[in-house]
Amino acid sequence: MISSILKEGTKNLTGLEQAIIKNIAAITELSQITRTSLGPNGMNKMVINRLGKLFVTRDSATIIRELEVVHPAAKMCVMASQQQHAESGDASNLLIVFCGELLSQAESLLRMGLHPSDIISGYEKAIAIMKDELIEQLAVNSIDDLSNIGAVTDILKTSIAPKLYGYENLFAPLVAKACVSVLPENPKLFNVDNVRVSKITGGSIDEAFLIKGCVLSGSTEGTIRTVESASIAVFQTGFDIEKTDAKNVIIIESPDELEGYNLSEEELLESKIKEIADLGVNVVVCGGTIGELSMHFFEKYNIMTIKTTSKFELRRICRATGATSQLKLDTPKEGEIGHADSIAVEEIGSNIVTIIRSEDSNLTTIVVRGATDNILDDIERAIDDGVSTFKGMTKVGNAQFLAGAGASELELANLIKKYGEHQPGQDQYAINKYAEALEIIPKTLATNAGMDAVKTLSNLYAAHSAGKANVGVDIVNKGIHDACELGVYDLLSAKLSAFRLATNAAITVLRISQIIMAKPAGVNLPRGAATSAGQMDQDPW
Q: Averaged over 304-326, what is the pLDDT?
């Protein structure tokens, strides 16, 4: 017995039922959670995390992150999803759903008596033929010129629609314009952080608009509210009378000496501000407190003052204006001064914001409105997905796209089944099951849209057998239609990455034949002690 060579309390699970099937059940259960959120008709999930924060969203990356999955096998699927979200920013729900279906199909083969090695071999052959030969044959569209806003808009609609169905025609052009406006000469250097989202509660979702520059919460510090042709100096610290590093004792023997000392400090401060004003600077941004005396001289020389305590906001201002932040209160050099077309304090709804506008800025901001914070958070996630899709398009020289709406998955299933029929050995069963697992995407899209999944799938197979390889699920008219005519496209690289990571996660789980769990470290607290652990001693009364 293995328990005789291990510490007391160690659990040992082995065999088909105890190890493999339990792991498959955990991941299948996880995929069932996110499956109903797939596609434009996906349902929202209400998640309350351990801190009591409420999330109402259909974004699988957010759902999985806030669920805090602890099952070891399910965590492998979660990590694969996180990797997909980090690399492509999209198709993370596709990955989880497909991984769960792969393992569900594998379970039926295991119960039939097929060895896990044969299943793994079949899955590896299926993903290899898909990656090397099949998937690129299905490419139906490509974009050579990423500065073409119209073409980019058509592609981004598919990424934004699953989270903002009905508003994709509003936000796709905004995201496309924002991304194209900050696209560098070398598209591969595109930075997703250059497209920001400013969330302002109130108003309607239709009131979203784009600003070339950045938006700061709050008003300016002084009385100046508007500056045209702004020249900007940025300081990381506050702006006040400098204090010496060492402790000194100054002996003042008369009121005149005291007045002269105060005047010398004032003159020194005024001379610094005057030097800044002489450079043509009419806006000063500080990362700390601005003293009253400093404010007096800024007003005297007609300089707008902006205070921000966020170092990230300070960096965004520098990026938007081309300024270089100063560590000390020294006069900036000519090349360290930023420029903007205008800086103005405006009221959006009931919120006061400071807007920095610059047509030459490396930063764009999409201002979004909404009734609740949850709506604004979902809009931000949808915009982030659109920007990440654009980033994925910049990674390759010629971005290729597949027909969406489940059309490419069904065509891949057809091709992989034909490939499996010509394979000798028992792994052909696994190859056929891999093809069947691909059917889960159009089936789920149809189910979430309230359609008959079996009937829709049979109609899709009939259309694809007739040579109509781009026919997918039409959720609007409750039928099937050519996805290219509907304008539904999926980024080839993102979808291939999702299939690859899902297959790798499924294979990793199938390779596990034994689970050995040591006894958790720590002392078992008596009942009721867990709630009061860590609290201070209290009086018995």
A: 86
